[in-house]
Structures are given as C-alpha cells and as structure tokens.
Amino acid sequence: MALKYKRILLKLSGESLAGDIGHGIDFDTVLKICEPVKKCVDMGAEVAIVVGGGNFWRGRSSGKMDRTRADHMGMLATVINALGVADGLEQLGLDVRVQTAIAMQEVAEPYIRNRAVRHLEKGRVVVFGCGTGNPFFSTDTGAALRAAEIEADVILKATMVDGVYDSDPKSNPDAVKFDKLTYSDVLNKNLGVMDMTAASFCRDRNIPFLVFSIEDPENIVRAVTGEKVGTLVE
Ligand code: UDP
C-alpha cells in the first residue's frame, strides 16, 4: 500500500483512550489504537502524536477554579495520556520518545523541535505532551503548532464522530456529512470540528486536517494511505 502522507501528526483526543470506561485510560483501547500506528510506521510513515487530556480533566470545565491553574492540570493530564500511548507503542515493538512542552526531564524529554524531527527521521514515534505548554490553548492548537514546526503533511484528528456534519448527527438523523471543507467554511460556519485558534492557524499555514472516527482504529491506516474516510479540511 502506498502512502498518501509521509509525515503525519496524529491528534488523539483524551476521550479516545477511555474506551467503554468513559474516563481515564483503558489500556486495551490504547493498544487497539497503537496497532494501526505501527502499521503506518512499518509502511514508512513518520508519525508524531499529540494527545489530549479530556478523559481526565479539561481546564475550561473546571468551574470556579482559576483558569490558568486548571489548564496546568489539563496539560498534566495530557502527559499521563502521552505516557500511556508511548507504553502501548513500545509494547508493539516501536521506538518511542515522549517530549513535553513543560519540562519534566525525569519523565520525558523536553520539547526540542530539531530533536523531534531527528527521531522521526530515524523511524521513532514522537508523542508530544502538554499541548502548546500554555494555558488558554487546546491540544488541537498544540497539534497545529507541532505540525507546522515539524512540517507534517497532514493533521489526522481521530475523534468519536466519523467526520464533520452540518448539524449534530446524534440529535438529527438527517444530518449531512461533508467529505471536504475549506478552513473558511469551518471558521465562518463555526462548525466545531476544531477550535477557532487551531483552524485559523492551519489555514494560515496551509496544513490539511482530516477528521475521522477512531471507533475503527484501522481508519488511521486508511487516512494515511488516502482511502476515503472522514472529512478533509484544507
Ligand atoms: N491545555 C492547555 N494548553 C494547551 C493544551 C491543553 O492548557 O496548549 C489544557 C486545557 O486545560 C485542556 C486540557 O489541557 O482543557 C486538555 O486538552 P484538550 O481539552 O485539548 O483535550 P482533548 O479534548 O483533546 O481530550
């Protein structure tokens, strides 16, 4: 199978790691997601991963807490997930490095762009924790930033829905799925596929963004080989 994208930035939401438990990490689910990642690496793709943290904590849902502190907690949650995903990938025999935007050198490498690129060139998977490293941002924006820095060919956003719809498919059975969208559509129609900061950044940097369901983890391979899956924003 030929690759459509050589260097990919895979964004895994925290939720996608929780499986049926619905929160925290379900390691069997993690392993199921890691298997197609290994297939992609074996086919010659260079894979960097940004993980979310919503299965543990989201700063914006923290109620009365100070937002900056709540976001620090959210970023730490992404590190828990990054370590879980790294462990899953290693159990499948891959070489993996975790890099965090907030230094915690006893646990992971600090984020260094050139080093991350070097790892990718050597066939290692790099898992990025802490999003952008700053409060008030999301891991979608972290994914967009890292994709730009490492010059990824695409951002693959693996989520719980199989693409972008004109209305919520859970509440509207007639909701229509888009195959393709422009960033201007996403920004003007406020489609909620990613936050506005990430969308405007990707538009400015010309980074394609493919949203698809992780319920079937093989979709990761389909996305990388250019099979029709999800919704492509570019
Ligand atoms: N976060 C942050 N800065 C970033 C990325 C993430 O402060 O650059 C915090 C924020 O509190 C966020 C939490 O980490 O709610 C988890 O990330 P996110 O909500 O993007 O995770 P996902 O929804 O993808 O699981």
From TrEMBL:
It comes from the Bacteria. ATP binds at K11, L12, S13, G14, G54, R58, T159, Y165, D168. Its main location: cytoplasm. Pathway: Pyrimidine metabolism; CTP biosynthesis via de novo pathway; UDP from UMP (UMPK route): step 1/1. It is an enzyme of class 2 (transferase). UMP binds at G53, D71, T132, G133, N134, P135, F136, F137, S138, T139. Residues 19-24 are annotated as: Involved in allosteric activation by GTP. Its EC number is 2.7.4.22. Belongs to the UMP kinase family. This is Uridylate kinase. It comes from Neglectibacter timonensis. The lineage of its organism: Bacteria, Bacillati, Bacillota, Clostridia, Eubacteriales.
